[in-house]
Fold this protein.
Amino acid sequence: MNADAATVSNDVMAGILMTMNIAIFAPVFLLVIWKLRKKCKLLPALAGALTFVNAALILESIPKLFLFSGTNPVSVFILRHPFVFALTGALLAGIFEECGRYVTFRYVLANHSAKETAVTCGIGHGGIECIIVAGVAMVSNLAYAFLINDGQIAAIMQTLPAEDAATLQTVVDTLTTADFMMFAWGIWERTFALILHISLSVLVFAAAKMKSRFHLLFPIAILLHTLMDIPAGLYQAGVLPLIPTELIIATFSVGCAIFAYKIYPRLDETS
Protein backbone atom coordinates (compact mmCIF):
# COMPACT_ATOMS: atom_id res chain seq x y z
CA MET A 1 0.00 0.00 0.00
CA ASN A 2 1.24 3.50 -0.84
CA ALA A 3 2.23 5.19 2.43
CA ASP A 4 1.29 8.60 1.01
CA ALA A 5 -2.34 7.58 0.46
CA ALA A 6 -2.74 5.37 3.53
CA THR A 7 -4.86 6.52 6.45
CA VAL A 8 -5.89 4.97 9.74
CA SER A 9 -9.67 4.90 10.19
CA ASN A 10 -11.47 6.39 13.19
CA ASP A 11 -12.61 2.90 14.22
CA VAL A 12 -9.03 1.70 14.34
CA MET A 13 -7.95 4.79 16.29
CA ALA A 14 -10.73 4.06 18.77
CA GLY A 15 -9.62 0.44 19.00
CA ILE A 16 -6.02 1.46 19.69
CA LEU A 17 -7.09 3.90 22.41
CA MET A 18 -9.45 1.37 24.00
CA THR A 19 -6.81 -1.36 24.03
CA MET A 20 -4.12 0.96 25.36
CA ASN A 21 -6.23 2.20 28.26
CA ILE A 22 -7.59 -1.20 29.25
CA ALA A 23 -4.18 -2.89 28.98
CA ILE A 24 -2.49 -0.28 31.16
CA PHE A 25 -5.16 0.55 33.73
CA ALA A 26 -7.15 -2.69 34.14
CA PRO A 27 -4.30 -4.63 35.85
CA VAL A 28 -3.67 -1.68 38.17
CA PHE A 29 -7.39 -1.44 38.99
CA LEU A 30 -7.57 -5.20 39.64
CA LEU A 31 -4.56 -5.00 41.98
CA VAL A 32 -6.06 -2.08 43.90
CA ILE A 33 -9.38 -3.89 44.34
CA TRP A 34 -7.60 -7.05 45.50
CA LYS A 35 -5.49 -5.02 47.94
CA LEU A 36 -8.52 -3.27 49.41
CA ARG A 37 -10.53 -6.48 49.76
CA LYS A 38 -7.80 -8.71 51.18
CA LYS A 39 -5.61 -6.13 52.97
CA CYS A 40 -2.62 -7.93 51.46
CA LYS A 41 0.90 -6.64 50.89
CA LEU A 42 1.89 -5.34 47.47
CA LEU A 43 5.44 -6.71 47.49
CA PRO A 44 4.34 -10.01 45.87
CA ALA A 45 2.86 -8.04 42.94
CA LEU A 46 6.21 -6.31 42.40
CA ALA A 47 7.96 -9.67 42.69
CA GLY A 48 5.57 -11.15 40.12
CA ALA A 49 6.20 -8.27 37.71
CA LEU A 50 9.97 -8.61 38.06
CA THR A 51 9.66 -12.37 37.58
CA PHE A 52 8.03 -11.83 34.19
CA VAL A 53 10.63 -9.25 33.13
CA ASN A 54 13.57 -11.41 34.18
CA ALA A 55 12.24 -14.79 33.08
CA ALA A 56 10.31 -13.94 29.91
CA LEU A 57 12.02 -10.83 28.56
CA ILE A 58 15.64 -11.45 29.55
CA LEU A 59 16.45 -15.11 30.24
CA GLU A 60 14.00 -16.58 27.71
CA SER A 61 15.39 -14.34 24.99
CA ILE A 62 18.80 -16.05 25.20
CA PRO A 63 17.80 -19.44 23.74
CA LYS A 64 15.39 -17.67 21.40
CA LEU A 65 18.32 -15.89 19.76
CA PHE A 66 19.65 -19.28 18.72
CA LEU A 67 16.41 -21.17 18.12
CA PHE A 68 14.57 -18.52 16.07
CA SER A 69 17.39 -16.67 14.35
CA GLY A 70 17.14 -18.55 11.04
CA THR A 71 20.94 -18.53 10.77
CA ASN A 72 21.71 -22.10 11.88
CA PRO A 73 20.34 -25.53 10.91
CA VAL A 74 18.29 -25.91 14.10
CA SER A 75 16.55 -22.55 13.77
CA VAL A 76 15.97 -23.06 10.04
CA PHE A 77 14.26 -26.39 10.80
CA ILE A 78 12.11 -24.80 13.52
CA LEU A 79 11.02 -21.89 11.34
CA ARG A 80 10.13 -24.20 8.44
CA HIS A 81 7.80 -26.38 10.53
CA PRO A 82 4.88 -24.48 12.09
CA PHE A 83 4.06 -27.09 14.73
CA VAL A 84 7.69 -27.30 15.84
CA PHE A 85 7.80 -23.50 15.91
CA ALA A 86 4.67 -23.29 18.06
CA LEU A 87 5.77 -26.04 20.43
CA THR A 88 9.28 -24.64 20.87
CA GLY A 89 8.07 -21.14 21.68
CA ALA A 90 5.37 -22.43 24.02
CA LEU A 91 7.76 -24.76 25.84
CA LEU A 92 10.30 -21.99 26.36
CA ALA A 93 7.62 -19.74 27.84
CA GLY A 94 6.32 -22.51 30.08
CA ILE A 95 9.73 -23.51 31.41
CA PHE A 96 11.21 -20.06 31.96
CA GLU A 97 8.13 -18.34 33.39
CA GLU A 98 7.08 -21.16 35.69
CA CYS A 99 10.63 -21.79 36.89
CA GLY A 100 10.91 -18.06 37.56
CA ARG A 101 7.61 -18.15 39.43
CA TYR A 102 8.77 -21.11 41.52
CA VAL A 103 12.06 -19.40 42.46
CA THR A 104 10.12 -16.28 43.42
CA PHE A 105 7.75 -18.15 45.75
CA ARG A 106 10.44 -20.45 47.15
CA TYR A 107 13.14 -17.87 47.83
CA VAL A 108 12.19 -14.23 47.14
CA LEU A 109 8.83 -14.53 48.91
CA ALA A 110 9.96 -17.17 51.39
CA ASN A 111 8.42 -15.23 54.27
CA HIS A 112 5.10 -14.66 52.51
CA SER A 113 2.98 -17.72 53.27
CA ALA A 114 -0.54 -16.25 53.16
CA LYS A 115 -2.55 -17.70 50.29
CA GLU A 116 -3.37 -14.18 49.02
CA THR A 117 0.30 -13.98 48.01
CA ALA A 118 -0.36 -16.42 45.16
CA VAL A 119 -3.04 -14.24 43.58
CA THR A 120 -1.17 -10.98 44.23
CA CYS A 121 1.95 -12.32 42.54
CA GLY A 122 -0.15 -13.61 39.64
CA ILE A 123 -1.71 -10.18 39.15
CA GLY A 124 1.74 -8.62 39.09
CA HIS A 125 3.09 -11.21 36.65
CA GLY A 126 0.14 -11.17 34.26
CA GLY A 127 -0.47 -7.46 34.74
CA ILE A 128 3.00 -6.35 33.70
CA GLU A 129 2.81 -8.69 30.71
CA CYS A 130 -0.48 -7.06 29.72
CA ILE A 131 1.00 -3.57 30.10
CA ILE A 132 4.16 -4.38 28.13
CA VAL A 133 2.71 -6.66 25.43
CA ALA A 134 -0.51 -4.74 24.76
CA GLY A 135 -0.26 -1.31 26.43
CA VAL A 136 3.19 -0.27 25.25
CA ALA A 137 2.52 -1.73 21.80
CA MET A 138 -0.64 0.37 21.51
CA VAL A 139 1.24 3.52 22.52
CA SER A 140 3.61 2.80 19.63
CA ASN A 141 0.69 2.08 17.27
CA LEU A 142 -1.00 5.33 18.29
CA ALA A 143 2.15 7.31 17.50
CA TYR A 144 2.43 5.63 14.10
CA ALA A 145 -1.26 6.22 13.41
CA PHE A 146 -0.89 9.96 13.99
CA LEU A 147 2.16 10.07 11.73
CA ILE A 148 0.29 8.19 9.02
CA ASN A 149 -2.77 10.42 9.18
CA ASP A 150 -0.60 13.55 9.25
CA GLY A 151 1.11 12.40 6.05
CA GLN A 152 4.54 12.25 7.64
CA ILE A 153 5.19 8.53 7.46
CA ALA A 154 6.39 8.48 3.83
CA ALA A 155 9.05 11.10 4.54
CA ILE A 156 10.25 9.12 7.55
CA MET A 157 10.47 5.92 5.51
CA GLN A 158 12.67 7.65 2.93
CA THR A 159 15.29 8.33 5.61
CA LEU A 160 15.49 4.71 6.75
CA PRO A 161 17.59 1.81 5.44
CA ALA A 162 15.67 -0.50 3.12
CA GLU A 163 15.15 -3.22 5.73
CA ASP A 164 13.85 -0.77 8.36
CA ALA A 165 11.64 0.92 5.78
CA ALA A 166 10.13 -2.46 4.86
CA THR A 167 9.40 -3.16 8.53
CA LEU A 168 7.73 0.21 8.92
CA GLN A 169 5.72 -0.40 5.75
CA THR A 170 4.40 -3.58 7.35
CA VAL A 171 3.23 -1.51 10.34
CA VAL A 172 1.55 0.96 7.98
CA ASP A 173 -0.18 -1.82 6.07
CA THR A 174 -1.40 -3.42 9.30
CA LEU A 175 -2.81 -0.22 10.76
CA THR A 176 -4.44 0.97 7.54
CA THR A 177 -6.13 -2.37 6.81
CA ALA A 178 -7.10 -3.30 10.38
CA ASP A 179 -10.56 -3.04 11.89
CA PHE A 180 -11.92 -2.45 15.39
CA MET A 181 -12.45 -6.16 16.08
CA MET A 182 -8.74 -6.88 15.75
CA PHE A 183 -8.17 -4.79 18.87
CA ALA A 184 -11.21 -6.20 20.64
CA TRP A 185 -9.79 -9.69 20.20
CA GLY A 186 -6.51 -8.41 21.63
CA ILE A 187 -8.26 -7.34 24.83
CA TRP A 188 -10.02 -10.73 24.92
CA GLU A 189 -6.68 -12.54 24.71
CA ARG A 190 -4.99 -10.38 27.38
CA THR A 191 -7.93 -10.91 29.74
CA PHE A 192 -7.68 -14.67 29.60
CA ALA A 193 -3.89 -14.56 29.71
CA LEU A 194 -4.16 -12.65 32.99
CA ILE A 195 -6.62 -15.25 34.31
CA LEU A 196 -4.16 -17.98 33.37
CA HIS A 197 -1.24 -16.27 35.11
CA ILE A 198 -3.20 -15.94 38.34
CA SER A 199 -4.25 -19.59 38.10
CA LEU A 200 -0.69 -20.79 37.45
CA SER A 201 0.55 -18.69 40.36
CA VAL A 202 -1.83 -20.56 42.65
CA LEU A 203 -0.52 -23.92 41.41
CA VAL A 204 3.16 -22.97 41.66
CA PHE A 205 2.62 -21.36 45.06
CA ALA A 206 1.14 -24.67 46.27
CA ALA A 207 4.12 -26.59 44.84
CA ALA A 208 6.65 -24.23 46.44
CA LYS A 209 5.01 -23.76 49.83
CA MET A 210 2.96 -26.84 50.61
CA LYS A 211 3.85 -30.40 51.52
CA SER A 212 5.54 -32.77 49.11
CA ARG A 213 2.27 -34.29 47.90
CA PHE A 214 1.75 -31.14 45.85
CA HIS A 215 5.14 -31.21 44.10
CA LEU A 216 3.51 -32.42 40.88
CA LEU A 217 1.70 -29.09 40.56
CA PHE A 218 4.95 -27.49 39.40
CA PRO A 219 5.46 -29.63 36.26
CA ILE A 220 1.69 -29.46 35.72
CA ALA A 221 1.95 -25.66 35.67
CA ILE A 222 4.73 -25.85 33.07
CA LEU A 223 2.62 -28.21 30.96
CA LEU A 224 -0.50 -26.03 31.23
CA HIS A 225 1.45 -22.89 30.30
CA THR A 226 2.95 -24.68 27.31
CA LEU A 227 -0.41 -25.97 26.11
CA MET A 228 -1.92 -22.50 26.48
CA ASP A 229 0.75 -20.92 24.25
CA ILE A 230 0.66 -23.48 21.44
CA PRO A 231 -2.53 -22.11 19.77
CA ALA A 232 -1.02 -18.61 19.74
CA GLY A 233 2.11 -20.00 18.12
CA LEU A 234 0.07 -21.81 15.50
CA TYR A 235 -1.83 -18.59 14.78
CA GLN A 236 1.46 -16.71 14.43
CA ALA A 237 2.66 -19.40 12.03
CA GLY A 238 -0.51 -19.02 9.96
CA VAL A 239 -1.96 -22.45 10.80
CA LEU A 240 -4.90 -21.45 13.04
CA PRO A 241 -7.35 -18.62 12.23
CA LEU A 242 -7.80 -15.84 14.78
CA ILE A 243 -11.26 -16.67 16.18
CA PRO A 244 -10.65 -20.40 16.84
CA THR A 245 -7.32 -19.46 18.44
CA GLU A 246 -8.94 -17.00 20.83
CA LEU A 247 -11.77 -19.38 21.70
CA ILE A 248 -9.32 -22.17 22.48
CA ILE A 249 -7.28 -19.83 24.69
CA ALA A 250 -10.39 -18.65 26.55
CA THR A 251 -11.69 -22.18 27.13
CA PHE A 252 -8.31 -23.39 28.32
CA SER A 253 -7.87 -20.44 30.69
CA VAL A 254 -11.28 -21.02 32.26
CA GLY A 255 -10.42 -24.69 32.78
CA CYS A 256 -7.15 -23.76 34.49
CA ALA A 257 -8.98 -21.21 36.65
CA ILE A 258 -11.46 -23.85 37.82
CA PHE A 259 -8.58 -26.19 38.69
CA ALA A 260 -6.77 -23.42 40.62
CA TYR A 261 -9.99 -22.43 42.37
CA LYS A 262 -10.25 -25.94 43.81
CA ILE A 263 -6.65 -25.76 45.04
CA TYR A 264 -6.83 -22.24 46.47
CA PRO A 265 -8.75 -22.97 49.73
CA ARG A 266 -6.11 -25.54 50.66
CA LEU A 267 -3.36 -22.94 50.55
CA ASP A 268 -4.27 -22.05 54.13
CA GLU A 269 -2.24 -25.09 55.12
CA THR A 270 0.91 -23.09 54.36
CA SER A 271 0.12 -20.35 56.89
